[in-house]
Amino acid sequence: MGIGTVAGRLDRVFIEGKQFLMDMLSALLPGDWYAALSPVVSALVVSTAVLVFAPVSMMFLTWLERKAVARFQDRIGPNRAGPAGLLQPIADGIKMFLKEDIVPRGADGFLHFLVPALVVAPVFTLYLVLPFGRDMTAMDLNVGLLFFLGASAVQTPLVIAAGWSTRSKYPVLGSMRSAAQILSYEIPLVLVLVAVVMSAGTMSTSAIVEAQEARWFIATPWGLAGFLVFVLASTAEANRTPFDMAEAESELVAGFHTEYAGLKFAMFQMAEFLSAFAAGGLAATVFLGGWQAPPVPGFLAGAVSVVPSWAWFHLKLYAMFFVLIWFRGTFPRFRIDQLLAFAWKLLFPMSLLVIVAAAIWHFGLESGGAPGGTGPGAARELAMWGACLGLLAVGYLGLSAILEREFSRMNRPREMAHAP
Amino acid sequence: MTVTEPYVILAVFAVLAIGGPAASLLVARFLAPHHPGPVKQEPYECGAVEAGDPWGQFRIQFYLYALIFLVFDVEALFLYPWAMVFREAGFAGFVEVMFFIGLLVLAWAYAWRHRALEWE
Q1: I need a labelling partner for A165 at 20 to 30 A (CA). Which of A68, A226, A236, A346 fits?
Q2: Are A216 and A288 in contact (CB under 8 A)?
Q3: What single DSSP character describes residue A219?
Q4: Which of A201, A267, A352 comes nearest B101 by C-beta?
């Protein structure tokens, strides 16, 4: 068996694992039973895989984040439970189970239970449409991208319900703010993905990855700008620093989950972590070529092709999550007015410019020859880079100049009013 | 893979993804101690005595944001079908969509000028 076949087997190890389970089932059951049951069992296998993957990742991610942030702050981080503190998430999990569930007086008891029970389900669902490797999309919908956006939008009503049900001031205020924030950042996020759909010509996440075989979308001017907008907007959507208004503890205590203790709190924490992780996964899928190996010079191609596709995806996934941790370790928090102005007055118009740039890019490079024909010359491509980046730069500089002026105007009276 | 298969997955998945957390919350209810008290059940207000009902009025600003969100989210929704057929629609299609976006940019500029986008 050559190295190529081993690599091929390794690439398909999860798919073959599932096939093995299904084969075992077909050997055990009579033919017509198998025919009736196989779609459900297949769904069960896939669902279980995703439902095990997500919480296990979550445990590792909390450890990773605490360790990394500790290093940023010149601390050591968790180091008691297990080697290098690796068992810390398990210890935390047990503790969460045993913590008293405190429900504030006057709260809507039913909602107070229902929301934490529901809040992780839509987040788990996000992982169904992420292509984890070649042919490894759990639910390969032809509208995967829309499904992802829809499932992540379910957060908003849940956040409002979570805050409202407590009948306590900080959570109610915090949930309103979070909702305003999530809605505001939803727009640039959705618009930037329009450019991706334009370029790929499909909304299926696995087909979008395949469309990036020749060139990752981040290696285009619109893709580069789109990637930056996407990362910022999805960080804000996931309520992560520097956009973690919901948890501006100096203003709102802990935002909408102030009045949730024990496992209920853990559910919100899990939803937040996993949606940030999934957003990183979507960024890797639509801009960073998903499970595709990076383009490398010829002599390295052999070495790169040995690494299985799911390993590439995970590498990108964790790289994206590390950027989020890096943000958290580096940036101070926005103020709420700055936060919303940033979404509406900078990211929103920039995302429209990304769409225009994507259109210019395609008309510039594809007009004349049919798509897939002989590629345009390097000079033409360079000109298109110049045109697209020029447009984006002019937009960015103009908007940020206006925004800067607005901020300095807004800050002046505020500071005077607060002077003694 | 048939068309219905993804939706079989979704149905099975939904049961597990909602049932799992709900079941663990129920288990925690039996494992965790339960000693309610008048002070413990007080809504958290940093130790101060609670004043006023949070289930009352809140700022109109939030409504404004929701309204603006709705306009532009629907805009984005209309852009997706065009993005799917971007190549077939060609340059003419692009110009038409730019006209559509242009109209909404006008609305956006109007909202900005009237300070609907500002948090006060």
Answers
A1: A236
A2: yes
A3: G
A4: A352
Q: Is A84 left (phi over 0), alpha (psi -120 to 50) or beta?
A: left
DSSP A89-129: HHHHHHHHHHS-----TT--HHHHHHHHHHHTHHHHHHTTS
User: Hey, are the CB atoms on A170 and B112 less than 8 Å from each other?
Assistant: no
Cβ-defined contact of B21 to A40 (cutoff 8 Å): no
Radius of gyration of chain A (CA): 24
Interface touch A371/B43, C-beta < 8 Å:
no
Residue for token digits 């089932």? A25
List the domain range (segments joined by +) for residue B15: 5-113
State the CATH number of the domain containing residue B52. Answer: 1.20.58.1610
Nearest chain B residue to A129 by CA distance is B6
**B94: chain A residues, CB-CB within 8 Å:** 359, 363
Q: Which of B32, B43, B118 sits opposite A99 (nearest CB)?
A: B32
Burial class (CB in 10 A: 0-12, 13-18, 19+), B81: exposed
Cα A270 to Cα A280: distance, rounded to the nearest angstrom: 15
ipTM for the predicted complex: 0.86
Tell me the C-alpha distance between A194 and A201, whole Å: 10
**Which residues of chain B does A100 touch, with a Cβ-Cβ cutoff of 8 Å?**
32-35
| Tens of each residue's pLDDT in chain A, 420 residues | 466 677 777 777 788 888 888 888 888 877 777 777 777 877 888 888 888 888 888 888 888 888 888 888 888 888 888 888 888 888 888 888 888 888 788 777 788 888 888 888 899 989 888 888 887 777 888 888 989 998 888 888 898 888 888 887 788 888 888 888 888 888 999 999 999 998 888 888 888 888 888 888 888 888 899 999 999 998 888 777 777 766 666 666 667 777 787 888 888 888 888 888 999 999 999 998 888 888 777 777 777 777 888 888 889 999 999 998 888 888 887 777 788 888 888 899 999 999 999 888 888 887 654 444 455 677 888 888 888 888 888 989 998 888 888 878 776 655 555 544
Q: For A119-176, what is the HEC assignment?
A: HCHHHHHHCCCCECCCCCECCCCCCHHHHHHHHHHCHHHHHHHHHHHCCCHHHHHHHH
Please state the domain count of chain B: 1
Residue A43 burial class via C-beta count within 10 angstroms: exposed 0-12, middle 13-18, buried 19 and up? buried
Distance from the B29 Cα atom to the nearest Cα atom in chain A, whole angstroms: 7
Residue B118 in any domain: the answer is no
Q: Alpha-carbon distance A395 to A401, whole Å? A: 10
Inter-chain residue contact A194 with B12, CB threshold 8 Å = no
